[in-house]
Specification:
26% helix; elongated; 50 residues; Jelly Rolls; single chain; Lectin_gal-bd_dom
Length: 50
């Protein structure tokens, strides 16, 4: 387990998904950056547009 986290992932998800009926993202370095080199990446999101 690591304590390394992305500080920009929430803003990135908001910018890509806000206002969309459906949003699919891949937890990749290209989309979310690489704050933790050499570490397996995952993304868990619960998001609702109001």
């Amino acid at each position: 387990m690591t304590s390394c986290v992305s500080t920009t992932s929430t803003a990135k998800v908001q910018s890509l998904c806000n206002g969309q009926n459906l949003c699919r993202l891949t937890a990749s370095n290209e989309i979310l950056g690489d704050p933790c080199p050499g570490t397996y990446k995952y993304l868990e999101v619960t998001y609702a547009c109001f």
